[in-house]
């Protein structure tokens, strides 16, 4: 019983961390509106059931309810923040962790949070 309870606590914490990087933009539906598209915050329309990646490294999906977006960036944690620094590459939507004094050398990272 304790193992089951502990597993549920860990799962709840994991779901909370993951969902913290997602958001929903509800679709504005008016009576008799059977639109088969979603309009994002930039005014761009996307077909219903389509997926795309934003310039802010988010994966988005257009559904009948609206647009669901989640970050696709894995952030490094548990590394030597005194000796090392994280550098973000917007083109690949990823971080590298390198030594501050010698950026050619990478640093060990203890984990990544998505």
Summarize the structure.
This protein is an alpha+beta fold. The protein has one helix spanning 2-19, and strands at 22-26, 37-39, 45-47, 51-53, 58-63, 66-71, 75-77, 84-89, 94-99, 111-113.
Describe the protein in words.
- The chain is 16% helix and 39% strand.
- The chain is α+β, with helices and mostly antiparallel strands.
- It folds into two domains: 50 residues, Complement Module, domain 1 (Ribbon); 39 residues, N-terminal domain of TfIIb.
Mean pLDDT: 83
Percent in helix: 10-25%
Question: What's the CATH H-level homologous superfamily of the largest domain?
Answer: Complement Module, domain 1
Distinct helical segment count: 1
CATH class of the largest domain equals Mainly Beta
Radius of gyration: 19 Å
Task: Report how far the terminal alpha carbons are from each other.
Answer: 30 Å
Number of strands: 10
Q: Summarize the helix and strand pattern as letters.
A: HEEEEEEEEEE
Total domains: 2
The proportion of residues in beta strands is 35-45%
Walk across the major sheet and give the strand order: 1-6-5-4
**Which CATH architecture of the largest domain?**
Ribbon
Which regions contain 5 or more consecutive residues with pLDDT less than 50?
3-19
Largest sheet, in brief, is: 4 strands, antiparallel
By helix and strand content, what is the structural category? alpha+beta
Task: Estimate the global geometry from the Cα principal axes.
Answer: elongated
Query: CATH topology of the largest domain, anyone?
Result: Complement Module, domain 1
